[in-house]
Amino acid sequence: MVDGYGRLISWFMLTSLVKASSDHQPPSKQGGGVTCYTCVNVSDNLMCNQYAIDSPCPEGEDFCHTLHIMDSTGASVVVNKKCADTTECWPLGVGCVLVDTQTICVSCCDEMYCNVTVPTNQSNAIYSNRRTQSRTKVRPSETPDLPLSSAPQTLVSHSILFVVLKSLL
């Protein structure tokens, strides 16, 4: 007999599969060059990676975006992983913020399966664009990849909250 928690997880997994299949594009439309672990509203990282949909990111979505919500003890509550573009993945859009008793961490990276782990603190909730930078020349005058500690904390908190709200809608 499946309890309420098991039904909830099953429902989230089914929702994730339906969304992933509806987002699937023919191979000619794909080619972002990166493949990410993808899952929606699962309870922990192991479950996400174990049941992740394995398909290349669509063109224009060159980042793996990871949202991790933890309770006051640091235990996972929600894990969301997906392909994303530069509107969701940018240097000031990553990090961790405390909301009530939960910690919300966001990280972005652009290498194959780079989102295998989930961010748990400021040290590993990072923005990494190694592939993107190697494909395009970036002039020093352009926006650099700033570490989270050099950005105003209020802006970072608002950016993370915006990304969290956008990903949950």
TrEMBL record:
InterPro entries: LYPD6-like, Snake_toxin-like_sf. GO terms for cellular component: plasma membrane; side of membrane. Residues 1-20 form the signal peptide. It is a lipid-anchor; GPI-anchor. Residues 129-150 are annotated as: Disordered. Gene3D superfamilies: CD59. It comes from the Eukaryota. GO terms for molecular function: acetylcholine receptor regulator activity. Keywords: Cell membrane, Disulfide bond, Glycoprotein, GPI-anchor, Lipoprotein, Membrane, Signal. It is found in: Cell membrane. Its main location: membrane. CDD domains: TFP_LU_ECD_LYPD6_like (cd23567). Transmembrane segments: none annotated. PANTHER family: LY6/PLAUR DOMAIN-CONTAINING PROTEIN 6, LY6_PLAUR DOMAIN-CONTAINING PROTEIN 6B. This is Uncharacterized protein.
